[in-house]
Amino acid sequence: MGKNYLITSNLENKWVEKKRRVYLGDWTYDLAELNKKTNKLNKNYFDLENDNDVKYLKNLLNRLSSSLSAYFNRYHKVKFKKKFWKNLIWIWLDYYISSNYYKWKKIIRISNKNKFIYLNLDIKKNIYLYNVDTYEKLISESDLFNYLSIRKIIIYLRDRFIFKNYKHKNTYNDFSFFKRKYSIKSKIISLIGLLSFPITANNKIFISSGFSFKNLLKLNLGLGQFPTIFSTYFKKNYCFKITEKKIDRNQNFFKFHTKNSFEKFIESNILDEIPLNYLEKFFFNFEKIKKINLNPKVIISAGEHLHNDNFKLWLLYKKFFLKSKIIVIDHGGNHHLNTGQFDYDFKIGDQVIGWDKKYNKHKLPNPILYKNFLSRVKNETLIYVGSEISKFPYRVGPHEKGLSEIKSYKNLKILKKNLKKEIYKKLYYAPKEIKDDRLKSVLIRVVGKKKILKNGSFKHHLRKSKIVICDYPQTAFLESLISGPTFLLCDYKKFWKPRRHFLNIYKLLEKNNILFRDIDSLTNFINKNWNNIDEWWNKKNVKKTRDKFLDKFSINYLDNLLYSWKQFLLKYK
């Protein structure tokens, strides 16, 4: 029998018989293989991301962003501050380095013992992306884009593989999801923003989001201004360009001191990967954003600065050239180690206001969540909210990074088997946004299509729920905990590791049966307490524990939320 093939994406599966396949990661499995081998997969990512890896990637990110900042100044013939360029490219560079690092380590590990055949598909055109949003979309979801990304590593490590060339007529259909749809509601809001331009042009405070739409309106009116509608000025679009020839980007301008073979690989490829918005399209975009007739003293961002390049460029122009102040507020229930952006909020912001009380020196109330923000009215269903990951790993973080690591469909199997029948009838899965179709197919196979609710409908169904189970500790868990009986099902010593100052409250959650680390114990507890769940929920020690946990996220009453933020922002008027 001949040597086996290394399968790096779903593209190769159709040309290689199953018995000769060796899979690089669980992203390569089709549904049938995934169902067969989920419990037999080699350790996939978790052992590829330890504290030393995180420290190394952070160091590399700092060194590379400094070298690229000097490169951009030479390329564009300008003398912009290094911090301007570093803040502009930080998120893209983070994802670029991290996604390649995962793949590099897996390829090195799997090729150390065996020499595999690599199916080299005849794909010769060059793909250039315009922005970080497009890069994130492709590097997290696209088989073709990841095949090409992995191919670059394998070509660099060519001595470890036997190449078999294969003619493949590719039409780039893998990029067909690139049309972003805007709802009628969002179009109407953008139109209102356009019509209100004469009123909002002189607003001293620009608030991109961070509050509910209703509270955003109230807060702006309290500040004596009409809200500036973000989407009127800063729409996001997925854009890419396919060329026959490589774009010349003057390698001589790039100087970087490499320390190992991975860094040499990065050095040899990175200029071809830089989004067009940072090079060929930079000055076109820069002149365009300078013409936006908004002149705030303060810009507040709650996440838009991560993936919206147009907004980021405008924000950095205002910060570095016109001295506007940047305030970044948390955009989720983040309280974990290694969140994946390597302190980016603190780099781009003049102030960072966290939900976590420790990082909220002004003691401002949580801008999104408040006491009694939602009431459960019908008290009927058992809602399961599962961790959902992208198909391909591309960033450091506390979360699971592959279908072999997430527990939702495995937990649902156990709930289906061991919950009392009358309780299981009321069980539904509430997805946020399932990005990997294989996960949806597995969930349907486990619980049936009727038990999977629509994407993004969680908050609507939360009102009708009797109990909520969340298997990851972020915003959905906090929303549920505020509103009624909720369980956190999470092995926090492996995934979703909290910051140290949260460890004691996590132990209290576990002691009081709000947090469970295994599904069997939780199933038994629900079976036993279903009929008197409110009585348990309102016990003195349970109430005290959940109030203490919510207090760590600066959760207060709505009136205090609006008043405190108004007073804080008025000093900038």
Could you characterize the architecture of this molecule?
The chain is an alpha/beta fold. It has three domains: 5-178, no CATH class; 184-235 and 281-362, Rossmann fold (3-Layer(aba) Sandwich); 381-551, Rossmann fold (3-Layer(aba) Sandwich), CATH 3.40.50. It is 44% helix and 11% strand. It is built from 24 helices and 15 strands. It has helices at 31-37, 51-76, 82-111, 132-141, 143-156, 184-195, 197-200, 213-222, 230-233, 261-273, 282-290, 304-307, 309-321, 344-348, 408-418, 421-424, 437-447, 458-462, 475-483, 503-511, 519-529, 533-537, 540-551, 558-570; strands at residues 5-7, 21-23, 116-121, 126-129, 161-166, 205-207, 240-243, 298-301, 325-329, 351-353, 381-385, 427-429, 465-470, 486-489, 515-516. A five-stranded parallel beta sheet has the order 12-11-13-14-15. A four-stranded parallel beta sheet has the order 6-8-9-10. Strands 1-2 form a two-stranded parallel sheet. α3 packs across α5 (143-156) and α11 (282-290) crosses α13. The termini are far apart.
